[in-house]
Specification:
Blueprint lengths: L1 E2 L2 E6 L7 E7 L9 E7 L1 E5 L21 E3 L4 E9 L5 E8 L18 E2 L1 E3 L4 E8 L24 E9 L12 E3 L3 E5 L9 E8 L9
Parallel strand pairs: 2-8, 6-9, 11-15
Antiparallel strand pairs: 1-12, 2-5, 3-4, 5-10, 6-7, 7-8, 11-12, 13-14, 14-15
Length: 215
């Protein structure tokens, strides 16, 4: 798991200083690829868009007193509120966990309607720069007759994110080996710029191709 736009999540009823380990599959749709261990504690990071103080219609992620959600492979949680800075920006999400839902499965068998939330343990997460590549051109045929291909360049063909939070094992990522970041795409450690103390990952394949040819 990787969190590209991190916001702290505090599990308020989880013991301070306690830590445990869960096994998470390496690929959500291919169990033959095995699993790996992730640590869990009171303080985590989640994606910023996995929380909305004022949810839109059909929003199934974290919102104060909203539906229960699964922390991927760990526990069921319910959002109880948030912390804001002086400017009114949300700087921390608060939630409570169900101790009888270890592994994400509630003991009473109740159905969880909320989404599965990706997360990383704040105590063991590693920082990284992540480069998101998009189409070089906004036009599907930039070299067509009568067109200036320079005018068809996509100004958003590269987005560089800093301060991303990744699982600790990615500090030893092998360059050019693909790793799937949950809900985001496939990424490789940059074979020139990435170092254990300054990780850099490039997105090679997005999970959703949003390119639409101009008509």
């Amino acid at each position: 798991m990787a969190v590209l736009h991190p916001i702290p999540l505090t599990i308020t009823n989880y013991p301070e200083g306690q830590s445990e380990t869960f096994q998470v599959e390496n690929h959500p749709k291919d169990p033959t690829l095995g699993s790996h261990a992730v640590t869990f504690s009171k303080h985590l990071f989640i994606e910023a868009d996995d929380f909305m103080e004022e949810p839109i219609k059909k929003y199934k992620r974290l919102t104060p007193n909203g539906m229960e959600c699964r922390l991927k492979g760990a526990y069921i949680i319910t959002c109880t509120g948030c912390v804001k800075d002086a400017a009114g920006n949300v700087i921390e999400v608060l939630a409570e966990y169900d101790p009888a839902s270890k592994g994400g499965n509630p003991a009473d068998g109740r159905k969880i309607k909320g989404a599965a939330i990706q997360w990383v343990d704040a105590a063991t997460a590693v920082d990284a720069e992540v480069r998101l590549y998009d189409n070089l051109f906004d036009d599907a045929a930039p070299d067509a007759v009568g067109k200036d291909f320079l005018c068809a360049l996509n100004p958003n063909s590269l987005t560089v994110l800093t301060g991303c939070k990744l699982e600790a094992f990615l500090a030893d990522a092998v360059a050019l080996t693909p790793y799937q970041f949950m809900r985001t795409g496939y990424f490789c450690a940059d074979n020139k710029d990435s170092k254990p103390e300054a990780l850099v990952f490039n997105r090679s394949v997005s999970l959703k191709d949003s390119f639409k040819a101009n008509k």
